[in-house]
Structures
1.
Amino acid sequence: DMQNLILSMLKTNPMERPYIYSVIESVHDAIAKIEGRV
């Protein structure tokens, strides 16, 4: 499960949270664009 993977990453690497959040935002933006085209 992607959410569990992200949560485990947040627990192991607190310093990388801003990076992880930016990746999540990029993924959400990509999904929104794909859904918008359909």
2.
Amino acid sequence: MWQTVVCCLLNYSPMGSKHLFDTTTSYILCRRCGADLADTKHIINHLSPEANIAINQTIFEQKDVAVQVFSNSLGIKFYSISFSNTKCTAINNWQQNFTWYPGYAWKPCICKQCGVHHGWVFEPIESIDFNPNQPSKKGFFVLKLAFLLNKKFADSLIVVPKSYMN
């Protein structure tokens, strides 16, 4: 019984916003269904000459993250960040037209759980035949910020039951 009480006391913070056992990594979730999409340690700054704007921001508790704004062929703008690895699923065939990264082919990528379109997978054109579904070490992901949610932020929205407050 005392182990349960001690365990609860160690994991409960009356301040609500500060965790006693803070880890150095944070996860990024699908904003629609809450599925794990990426680890913040996989955020990279892969700049594109085709970006409308590129701004360094502190985002997902990471400093100097390059947030790039891209426009597609329909004129729709996307605020995006790049990752070396995600759990996003690549779909369809590699496309070489309308690429934001010259020398790279791309595919859309979706959430494995709910199917929402999160962004794109980019792969150097010379290696697209070798990696049909996942990028090689030279490949990367570009995900739209509008569909991402920081797990720590999501956890902060959870209300502590009144019985814990006594």
3.
Amino acid sequence: MTDHGDDVDRSDEWDRLRARHLHEHRPPSSARGVHHLALLSSDVEQTIAFYQ
């Protein structure tokens, strides 16, 4: 089971996810009027895969 909560340092995990999934140059959003919307599941990498 994955640890969670405010007392868990997840910065290393987040850095790995950023390095793996964020791209320096991204195309303009096709969402028109929506500036930002993110829905998260309990598995962050699964959420990223869904939105990409």
